[in-house]
Design goal:
This protein has helices at about 5-15, 50-55, 65-75, 85-100, 115-130, 150-155, 190-200, 225-240, 290-295, 315-330, 330-345, 370-380, 400-419; strands at about 30-35, 35-40, 45-50, 105-110, 140, 175, 205-210, 215, 220, 240-245, 270, 285-290, 355, 360-365, 385, 390-395. The longest helix has 18 residues, at about 115-130. The chain is globular, with a radius of gyration of 21 Å. The chain starts with a helix and ends with a helix. The protein is of the alpha/beta class. Helix 6 (about 150-155) links the parallel strand 5 and strand 6. A seven-stranded mixed sheet has the order 4-12-11-10-7-5-6, sandwiched between helices.
Length: about 425
């Protein structure tokens, strides 16, 4: 089929994320990708400001990652993880334990970020059951968060302004504190309120789950690193399992390898995904402490009740290890700082609230974005963006050049003016 036929079939039969099937939004046909750019039929090469929803940190068609996939294909593409193991999974586990904050040395390999968060929540619930606290079945979190699209994940996303308000009354009712204050703000009043809320509900709480340092799809909201110490303090005081959802922030995006490091805090469970495989294949992980592993094993089941069909997929594990090796071999920190410097140009965008953290640039308008108009304007400027709500933002590949970053800033400015 030619481009027109492909797009016509797509429009008639394929669902896209958060899109109507009866009145679908326009889609564009990608014909190739290399480095920091994707090729779009009828448009040409454009800088990918989204890094495939924040995952392709090394860009596209990276020779090291391509080779890792090909070499693993020559051995095996997949084998079940129940009762079996293999070198790619073991090697990836070894790398993750070495990179993660000390003590997070038990690794559950999941097949997506949402699943990793579901597993983390199960860990917390089973840990409390193992301790005989069967009434602790709820989670404490903050407003403005986003943790995925599966059911328990949706329950800890923002209950009003988030994407899952539709499911109010169906989802488990969790306990929501106020969103942490903005970067640079005094956190004292917020911290006192959060402590009081936790104390009020402590006897029914199993865990505390947050996105550390940067709330992603709930509003692209960065907040002070000091808040992480408050989360740790509250969890310790009330016997809660502290879960950090670093699906979006892990592997350097906010300026430290893990956002938790910015606050000097170690969670009890750490979820990673997205950039884990460099954007090649779907894979995530939930890492926990030995204490959590022992505690959940003491519950009535005796085992962690989860086991995806594609758990520990060898192809995904092999390319993830290659991606982590590539990250370590390169000066990712310098690249993130360089991108951060370039993104400061976004502060010149008028009539907008601009936020820059690590390799993240956000422009928040005072009105909902006209997504179609903003997308067209960005493409005309040589940039692919995916605005949502009142936000136009970028989380680009770390391999972007200074010229790429300047193009991204110009594209965001054009999108803001049009949208």
């Amino acid at each position: 089929m030619g481009p027109a036929e492909l797009l016509a079939f797509d429009r008639e039969h394929l669902w896209h994320p958060y899109t109507s099937m009866t009145d679908p939004a326009p889609t564009r046909l990608v014909t190739g990708a290399a480095g920091s750019r994707i090729s779009i039929d009828g448009v040409g090469e454009v800088v990918d400001g989204m890094a495939s929803w924040w995952s392709a940190i090394h860009g596209y068609r990276h020779p090291v990652l391509d080779a890792a996939v090909r070499e693993q294909l020559d051995r095996m593409a997949h084998v079940m993880f129940g009762g079996l193991t293999h070198e790619p999974a073991v090697e990836l586990g070894r790398r993750l334990v070495a990179l993660a904050p000390d003590g997070l040395d038990r690794v559950f390999l999941a097949d997506s970020g949402s699943v990793a968060v579901e597993v983390a929540m199960k860990m917390a619930l089973q840990y409390q059951r193992g301790a005989g606290r069967t009434g602790r079945t709820r989670f404490l979190t903050v407003r403005g968060g986003y943790h995925g699209d599966t059911f328990d994940c949706m329950s800890v996303c923002d209950p009003a302004g988030g994407m899952h308000a539709l499911w109010s009354g169906v989802l488990p009712e969790q306990v929501f504190g106020e969103r942490p204050p903005a970067l640079g703000a005094d956190i004292a009043e917020w911290a006192d309120g959060f402590r009081a809320l936790a104390a009020e509900h402590a006897d029914r709480l199993a865990g505390l789950i947050v996105e550390p340092l940067l709330q992603g799809a709930g509003g692209m909201h960065p907040y002070p690193a000091e808040c992480l110490a408050v989360f740790r303090e509250v969890a310790d005081r009330h016997g809660l399992v502290l879960v950090f959802d670093e699906i979006a922030t892990g592997f350097g995006r906010t300026g430290t390898l893990f956002a938790a490091e910015a606050g000097g805090v170690r969670p009890d469970v750490l979820c990673v995904g997205k950039a884990l495989t460099g954007g090649y294949l779907s894979l995530a992980a939930a890492l926990c402490t030995a204490e959590v592993a022992r505690g959940l094993s003491a519950c009535d089941s005796g085992v962690l009740m989860h086991g995806p069909t594609f758990m520990g997929n060898p192809l995904a594990c092999a390319v993830a290890s290659a991606s982590l090796d590539l990250l370590a071999a390169q000066d990712w920190s310098a690249n993130v700082r360089r991108i951060n410097t370039g993104l400061q140009a976004l502060h010149r965008v008028e009539a907008a609230d601009v936020r820059v953290l690590g390799a993240v640039g956000v422009v928040q308008l005072d009105h909902p974005v006209d997504v179609a108009a903003a997308t067209e304007a960005a493409l005309a400027a040589g940039v692919w963006l995916r605005p949502f709500r009142d936000l136009i933002y970028t989380m680009p590949p770390y391999v972007c050049t200074d010229e790429d970053v300047a193009t991204l800033c110009a594209g965001i400015a054009a999108a803001a003016a049009a949208g």
